[in-house]
Amino acid sequence: MTRGNRALILLILVVLTGIIVPFVIWGALFDETLSLEGARKWMEGYGGWAWAAGIALLVADIVLPVPSTVVMSALGWKYGWWLGGLICAAGSMLAGIIAYAACRWLGRGAAGWIAGEEGLRRGEEIFEQRGGWLVAMSRWIPVLPEAVACLAGLSRMKWRVFLPALACGSVPLGFAFAAIGHLGQSAPGQAIALSVAVPMVLWLGAARMLRR
Prior knowledge:
Radius of gyration: 17 Å
Mean pLDDT: 79
């Protein structure tokens, strides 16, 4: 294993640790408070701004152990699969953009201190070659959405590639879980099946367009 790869692995472990620690400390509390019914009642407390409260929860998932798929299901329960899906997709995309932008502009120095120039250069190579797939497919895996968005920012992945990839993952995820919530189902099995397959198809098309 090269020095650059070792440094990159260290950087990835640091990013994952920063995300996993809040889950270990507060995960059970958030899961209990933000059940499907609990998330819906919490958002309804904001009246006509319930949709904004839902988006705020999805963005807060960057640093807090918010059960984002439960929040998406609650949004689908309240607003239906179409409007709820749009809100969920917007919240997921906004969370990804904020994580990416914050790490790109504020975290580069710390990342360089942890991984060095070799580690950062190796990260840039990986995200240049496979970043689209990583971003698109990570949106449906717990913990990874925030970590991959942060690493994409630290590696200075191109905006014109990051945003389409983010949309390819976030849009089907948002609509799938909104549909589950709208149908009154809390089990995420169907949503996971949809949100795994659809991003692959969407990113294949988006990558072909970007190459052109």
